[in-house]
Automatic annotation (TrEMBL):
It comes from the Bacteria. Residues 4-113 form the VOC domain. Keywords: Lyase. Pfam families: Glyoxalase. PROSITE patterns: VOC (PS51819). This is Putative enzyme related to lactoylglutathione lyase. The keyword GTP-binding does not apply. One of its GO terms (molecular function) is lyase activity.
Amino acid sequence: MLVERFKYTIWAADMTRAMKFYTEVFGAKVIKQNAHIIEMEICNGILSIHGGGEGAKTWTGLTFQVPDVIAGAAEIVAAGGQLTREPQPEDDEPPHLAMCVDPEGNEIMLTRKR
């Protein structure tokens, strides 16, 4: 099979709010936008936001590796997101994981390289 493109799509009740969150927190660059969908590039990957979401909490499987999970979690909260699992030290190492929710209810994960 010839794959021409790969992207991951999440749902949003408010696409503009979702776009603002991902551009501010993760430095996403909008590459396509219309009334139904916004596509953004993040670290060479494509995240697509589709309108029509209900705002209910939904596990996405999206994981963002960042150098500092504590600082990243603080940025998510400052941008209107939430934490469902605060960063916790493990085995005398700095935290490597934070479970988060974007303003649209999409659950995402922050990790640190180990």
